[in-house]
Amino acid sequence: MGLLTNLHRKVIAMGLVPKFLKQLPKVAKLLMLISLIMIAIIPMDGQYRRTYISENALMPSQAYSYFRESEWNIVRGYRSQIEEFFKNNVTAQERNLEVESWLQDFGIKTSIYHNEVHQDTLYGILHTPRGDGTEAIVLSIPWYNGDGEFNVGGAALGIGLLRYFSRWPVWSKNIIIVFSENPRDSLRAWVEAYHTSLDLTGGSIEAAINIDYASNSDFLDYVEIYYDGLNGELPNLDLLNVAIKITQHEGMKVSLNGQPKDTIDDNGYFPRLRTMLLGIRDSTFAGVKKTHGNEAFSGWRIQAVTLKACGDEGNIDITTFGRVPEAIFRAVNNLLEKFHQSFFFYLILAPKNFVSISSYLPSAVIISVVYATFSLDALVNTPFGSPIFFNKESLVSLVILSITLVASYLLSQLFIYATKPELLIGFNILLTLIPFLIKKPLSFFIEPLTYRIRVFGYLYMSLALTSLLVINFPLAFMMGILSFPMTLVQTEQSKVLSNKSTALKNMLCITLSNPFISILIISNIVDSELQYLDVFYGLISAWKDLSCWTWFVICIGWFPAWLLITMSTVRSSRVNTVNTSKKQQ
Amino acid sequence: MSNSITTFVLQGLLLITGLVIATDESLSNTETKDINDQKFRTIDTGIQFPYEERLNVRPLPHNHLLSSFEFQMNSEPFFPSDSSSNFDKYDHYTIFPKAIEPLLRRTDVRQLHLRFTRGFWDSEEWGRLPHDGFKSGGSGVELWALIEGNSKKDAYKKWKSLANSLSGSFCASINFIDLSKTNYPVFSFNPQERENEGIPLFNSTNNLYLMHASLANEPICTENLTPLLKLLPSKGKSGISSLLDGHKLFDSIWHNMAIDITTQCVNDDSYSNSGECFYEMEANVDVVAHIPSILARNKNPIPKPLGGDDLHCDLSKPYDAYQCFPSPETSEISFSLSDIFGKNISGSNDLSFTHSRICASISENWLATIKVDDGLFGTDDNCFDLTENRNYDIYMESGSSNKVARNDDVPIYVSRSLTGYGQDHGGLRTVFSNPTLEPVRLSYYESLPWFMRIYLSTLKMEVTSDIYQNLTFNDIVESQYYMPAIDRKRSTQLEFIMTIPANCTISLTYEFDKALLHFTEYPPDANHGFEIESLIITILESAPYQLRTATLLLYLSTPDFSMPYNVIIISSTIMGLIFGTLYNLITKRMVTMDEAEKILATRSIKYKVMMLKQRILSKLGF
Description:
The structure holds 2 protein chains of 2 kinds.
Chain A lengths: L1 H13 L1 H7 L1 H18 L7 E2 L19 H18 L4 H14 L3 E5 L7 E6 L8 E6 L11 H15 L7 E6 L5 H10 L9 E9 L6 E2 L1 E5 L10 H13 L4 E3 L12 H16 L18 E8 L5 E2 H16 L12 E5 L2 E4 H24 L11 H26 L3 H17 L4 E5 H23 L3 H10 L10 H6 L1 H14 L1 H12 L7 H13 L3 H19 L3 E2 L12
Parallel strand pairs in A: 4-5, 4-6, 6-10, 8-9, 14-15
Antiparallel strand pairs in A: 1-13, 2-3, 3-5, 7-11, 8-10, 12-13
Chain B lengths: L1 H16 L12 H11 L10 E10 L3 E11 L26 H7 L1 E11 L3 H4 L13 E10 L2 H19 L20 H7 L9 E9 L6 H10 L14 H4 L4 E12 L11 E14 H9 L33 E4 H5 L3 E2 L9 E5 L5 E7 L2 E3 L5 E4 L4 E8 L14 E7 L5 E10 L5 E9 L3 E12 L9 H4 E7 L8 E9 L3 E11 L15 E3 L3 E4 L5 E4 L3 E3 L8 H25 L5 H11 L1 H16 L2
Parallel strand pairs in B: 1-10
Antiparallel strand pairs in B: 1-2, 2-7, 3-4, 3-6, 4-5, 6-7, 8-14, 9-14, 10-13, 11-12, 11-14, 15-16, 16-21, 17-20, 17-23, 18-21, 19-20, 22-25, 23-24
Helix pairs in contact in B: 3-5
Pfam families (chain A): Gaa1
InterPro entries (chain A): Gaa1 (IPR007246)
Keywords (chain A): Membrane, Transmembrane, Transmembrane helix
């Protein structure tokens, strides 16, 4: 204590506190830099960890996989029939009925879930002898994959696998096979119905494996594994590790986060950084961009991954690909408890490298501190002397904040019913121009109030980021970085008026940090799947089809803060000219 | 020890002389007379005991085979009025298991039912359960008993003692049955039957208490079968029980072991305690096996891919050396019981009035023959008596195995599932589907653990058939019984008597909250979840039938069990900090900055050295 007392005394003696307070914007910018550096050093050697199987019971690839030899003939047999469906343009209903009869031939209890909006889904349950029927593993095969291609190889493989599974006496969890029309809304609708209204159920689902092999070839090149859940959820790292380990054990290359084939083997700082950043991107836009099936299972404590066979030429055959789900099922089958041993929050740097939440969370925390610092700055560094927090301006700002919150909520709801991205962007460009267009100072807009609005704007942003960062780090991190330009906005009227470039800079910062404009720009830059205005349709569809909250996080978490900051730049009257007791909204 | 030696010696004596001393000639009841008469009917092999065993094999659709083993035995008669201090009294166990009878007497059990069941009974394909479901339980262990006691408390004490003893005898966790798992069924388990049968009270001031409990997460395995075999007089060494082998029995799709013990008294007036009584025990083992997989596993224990020549392809679809659309399962099948059970039947049992009997319930397109040593013999009724001490086997074959002697259809299908999202609340959904053209009246018995806090106010009924759209809950439920749970002391008990209209599907849903458990209340495999015992449905009218739904797995929010240590560390740190600060405040003197600087100035080493120097210099006189 003595040491601290001395230090405290020295600090006071040297008058560091006021000096520090004066430098708050610089401190905040420094913090921002530190946060970025902290993320950037994660892929450096010594900062990340090698993956490992935490749950001993899993024992991936410890049992020999027998899905080979003549099983290939059977897969081909099924495939030739499924190809017929596609060639003859068989309706979904007929196709489901036909496949249902195939499944019943080897003792699967089947049912078709009818849904007029999201299409019918065929599913079947293999009641297994070793279990008590309370738990299940799902093998999910969308008829059409995320790209809209007919999943002919996947469907043949799925039926062949299930037939093969039915001969094994080892299963202790029921096996459910699901054929939905697509991996997005119809699969999600089935998962939801499974937990609300289906009559034929097979116990709680522990894990789900999606198979995507949209080719009638016998061969494939490498395997892409998708694992992102919705709303920042990820499958337990153990399941992902098991999937990766088994795929590599069977001699296939694993690509994560859509890495192209020629970069799979790269292992160095930049490839790792790239994989990590792609992971952050994919997780931010999970549900917004095209889905692979694993997203549909997100929630309900179901761990899900998608195995996608890439390329139809290569030296890997379809049964080798089939041995991956086989071995994953064998591993998950060993579990006595739910997945709980390994991490639920992580970033993947390479198929066998990861960092856990403790490594990357601090940088998101620092970002939220940046906004809190700017808020403090707006409170103490005003030209109006001593900062008193509880005054009339605070109350007015709070009222304004509440109004913007309600307005943002209404906007978010309105946009769901009338999805017109052009209008939305146009409206927002208009909003960014308002500070420019208002030439005459508004009479009630006195300057201390604009500073106080700023305080609340940054504080709200910091609060939103803080509450988001643990559950959805990628989204919080993206939001924190993308809205950073709003901290560069100047409020002091004299400066803005006097300096044309400051005014221009203000407008640029406001435009760049507008949530909708910013999301539009970034999605077009980083994601080839989300071009032009796709991101808005994706956001709405993600909410409607998959109950993914990203749209509301942007509307209610980011937009009100932006509105407040924009408002603070509106030309205001000086304090000495206006009676402060006038306006209360 | 001495008791068993006595029994052994007595048995030996009886066998040698072939004589039995009639204990009481003045018996009035004919039934007991029959039993005793039979006992006197000696044949060359020796004395016969009231014991019967029987095996019923029944092919089920899709090449499944149901084998039902039935063992029935009676205890020696006894007089409940005999006081235990009577010096003439001796306990004599012949074939009735000595492990059981003293237990029944000690705990005043009048009826005991114990079930070990596991697996999936496909009632859509296979029809009714064996014995109309009255001999099978829910997944896991189920125990219910009718106990005589002077109060509920007394009866519970005996029930607890019974559970503990059975736990030891059957190597199962039955001792985990406690207050929070015990229920007193009201509508279910046929109380009417109890009145009609006239279950005896040994002491007319006492009452009978029906108690029920089930352990849904109990795995059933060999160590439960072995004790059961030990209860049989043949000990699994001869007769049909010699077929029972843990490896094969538990390698099945569905299996069930049941023990039912009832007390029978011969006196017309069951409330006087002078009559002669005996215990009747039935043991049942039912098992369903999928024949082709067992035959395939006998060939090769690992279901490896078949060779190209062994593939059965659908000839109506393209097939060649590369592709093969598999044909549906073959309907030509032949097997012997030794293939299914891995053993032959070693001889008959020599203890009973009747020979061990094996019956095959088959349709015309099936053939069943008995193989005695090396010869095959058939009978008209497909029943075979095992008369000699030789090796037997049953051989069965069919060219169209899917045509089987059809079991009657199930009067109702019931399934139950958990609904909802999240860790703090959920829902239960039960679907009743009556495929018949008659309304079905049934009783519904559900017991839920106390940590599922159900809200009956959320009970909703949904009808899928259009005709019954206006049906309300009150229309189908004629009486209900609800015993709310008490935390850690009592489970929720929910019973209805209801009628499901013909050709109608009804779903009942209600919601519940998940309670938080104490840290130590979690089982070692805390993240597995908690099994919710089956719902028990008993059809009350026309053809009685009992069925149970599958058990469910309920997840409660489970703490990370390393967390308490983190909490201890953090709270210790905070307490340390607080203590340090307070200690500082209390023990230190508060001074102003100026004073403090003065004091500091006099304390610095430099100052002290200077003072010392001065003092030395002054001593030296400079």
